[in-house]
Amino acid sequence: MDFKRSLIFAYLEEDNTQRAYFRVRPLLSLEGDLRQEALQLWPNEGGLRIVPDCNEKRTFKARMRKLMSYCVLDLRNQPEDADKIRTNKNFKPERGEVNQYILYSDTVKALPEHTFYQLMEGDAARYQELAAEAITPLFFIQQGETLFGPVRKDAPAQPEPAAEAACVLFELPCPDGVERKILCMEDAPAVEAPAAQEQPEAAPAKPEKKAKKAEQVAKDEELPIGQALTILDERETHEETLRQLDQPVSEHANLLRQKEKHTLDASLLKQSGPLSGTPLVRKPLHVAAQQPKNRIQEVVSSQWSVGKYEPPAQNLPTGTAMRTVENPVEAACAALREAWKAENAREQLLDFMLSLEGVRTPLEAKLCHGESVTAMQQVLRQRLQDLEAERLTALCELDRARRDLDAYKQELLNAMSTRIARETGKLEADRQDAAVQVEGLKTQINALTLQRDALLAKVNELGSSALPEAVARITAEAQMCLPVPGVPLRLHPVSGHDADLDEMIARVTTVCSDAGITIDRNTAIALLVLLAVSPRIGVTSATPAAAATLLRNLHCAMGWQSSYAHQYDAEQHPLLGLRPVDATPAILSTSLPHYAHVDGMTKLLLHRNASGLTRNAAYDTCQWPIVMLPSLPYVAERADDDATPISAASIAKVAEKEYVSDAELDAVLSPVLNAASPLSGAARKEMYRFVSVCAGLMEGGLPAAMDWGILLWIIPALEKGAKNTEHVKARLDEYPLSLSKL
Length: 742
Fold this sequence. Notes:
Helices cover 43% and strands 14% of the residues. The chain is an alpha/beta fold and 742 residues long. The two termini are 59 Å apart.
């Protein structure tokens, strides 16, 4: 439809209260619902930014706030050259301005008492309650099969049944979340306004004005036939005569202005029978939708007009050749089409296009729509939108901080001056108190010197009794060591030190490098996070002896020699000692198919292959992650060096922060989990925590963390079942590590 010649029902909102920015969203016209058409003409929510007209710059904000939330856009009776809808020069979505077009405020008006009526369902006797909820000045009430109204919102009265009239009913979902029914009547019946207060009688007209009016009516009367026509008065000058003649023509002297009234004789209708021919019903005029404006096209068209129809702005030398300027978009499209035909040049062409500034954002927006989008891509896109919203919020906060920077600096200087003066006075008082305390300490030092001399004499006296005391201490310690059946495996945690993630990764990669194994950063992160979240970890290798030596070397490099032990005999019984402050983790490496559970101890289950770890009654009820090591070369045993022990709190701190919610993980993992054997509740919880932590630490983010989670939990469980392998394999195209193990 033609928006420039219509009366449109619209929604007005103040989308930025700090800067008093208003925008309007067209909703409805007499022709129908306009929301989809508005979205095509004005992208990004189908809204128009309202800018003040030159005649109401001072009253713009107050009038717009008075009109909210529903209004009309009156674009009728506009001059041909008046373009009320134009391109927004401040259109910058990255800074929050998403409205691509502007609308001048003189077209935004209050809802009229015609054309648009809200239809409300309810009891007509409750017209006052319904009037409080109405959004239009006049509204109708539908009670059963009867229609009452129209009723005035500001002065409601008991409504009468509505008269018959031609109208169209639309069910309109409004932007405030309420679905309303709107009646559209082009020729609405007149409704009496509430009685106004009695106005005082007008003062009688002055005699002079009455005389002039009578004289004007006398001039407009018809002239008698046959008499001389005297127009000019010889007593008046030429200027006075012209001034009298320059008067508008009276309506009484021009009968052509009167409208003719045609009546149709009823007898003619009876004689002629039923009417036939074209019905006198006005049909809506279908006009092509206004094409969105293109800045490049506007510039090219304007330059074409200037070069073709207007002379140059400067004086050009004689004989200067003029030429036609071609559209750069058309030339670029033609060149791109020709270059794309050469297959060996396509990669170079794509690299050049992606290197252009600002081309990635709109290109990714167009490519990320379609049926081929996977669940992973949908989750990543949603996370990217959330990050973009946080980035825009941070930019707004940064702008506000920059504006308040000068005031903040002055306030900070004043506070620092006050604080320095206060602290200076306090330091002076402390200095005086310290001088007094120094004198007292000198006296105490002298007294303590005397006590020291007495204690040294006592030590010399007790030196002869040192041997009996040592024998008594050894006997007491022997009584504290209780005997246990079999061979005890004692784990003695010691006090550890805090270490960051980079230091721990460096120790792990160094040990693997010394053994001839090269691992990347993601593998080291997976091992550390796995140690923090899972109390049982399976380790498989075709060379179990080399794998056991590698595990021992890793614990020695972390400083955990005293809190690590390897159980390979059923007669060995692990015993955990008391934990000091900031103790190192207690880790037991066992090669037995059955082992005793010990609280507070992490267990590494060693076996030659994964089937030996999954064929276990405990694994059937609570699966654990399994690390699949390749065949290892000879690994030399690392000497017990003086490596600084790392505390268990440092390992736990690695998994302290989670970066992905369970709902997002459900959306990504649902296709894989539905095809594979279901995990236990505890195993699924450990896997979700592992992926959520690794998503913020690994290179590659969430996809890399998902790949490791599937590799450690789902692939071992799948190999045990082995019946859904093909279904799972079809869903692992985005996870190369897991796919390589199938």
